[in-house]
Structures are given as C-alpha cells and as structure tokens.
Amino acid sequence: MKTFFLLIFISLSLVSFENKAQVVSTKKHKIVLQLVSGDTAIYRMLIRQVGNLKKAAPNAKIEVVCHSAGIYLLVGERTAYQKEVEEYAKNGVIWAACENTMNERKISKDKLIPICTTVPSGVFEVVQKQEAGWSYLKIGY
Description:
By secondary structure, this protein is of the alpha/beta class.
C-alpha cells in the first residue's frame, strides 16, 4: 500500500514539474550558437535548446551558425528538422550556413532549407558576433 501511494505521489510530482518553460528575461539578449557536429542527437538537442531560449528570453536575437558536419542540419534532403528550423526562423532565429563548408562539401545554396542565410566563414561569423558582444554557445562536441 505504501508503494502504491509513493507511486501516486511521484506521478503527481512529475506532472506538476513537467517542462513549464517560463520567461526569465525580457532583455534583448544576443546569442550565437555554433554547430559543428553531424550527430542527429546533437541536432535534436540544439532544436530543444533554441526553443528553451526563445521561451526564457522571447526578445533575444538568436543566430545558429552551422559549419563542418553541422551544415547537414540545414540541407533539406539530409535533415529531419526542416519543419522546426523553418518554424523558429518565422520567430526570428537566423540559421546561417558556412559557405566554406558548402564549397568543401559541394553543397549548393539551392540544397539548403530556403529560409537559411549563408556566411562566407562560419568560424569568422562566430568571432564577429563575439566581438560585437553576443553571448556564445557551442552545441555538441
């Protein structure tokens, strides 16, 4: 009987603590995220983190810079996250593909999800954002 009540208590606790994201800041933060991994589990984590950032800081400017194997998040025929990328883009998130990586991997701009922008160098884009006062998050490994 104690076990039954314990399970009920734990279940109710989990329901009350489910992910209820709340606004933490209304400040206009500027956040650049760098993705270099081709791991789809990392893609899923990035999508979740972008969503959490938008909920916690709805006025934040967010740019996701994809280069190296991370570029495949933005390649329409290779990604499972096109819908999420497009949805966040509608809410102001910038998705930037590195032209150096695109050239190296022979990815033409028409292969990218249409809402994507490109930057000449993903690494340098991150450097410029940091120099301009943007907060930096590296996603994955």
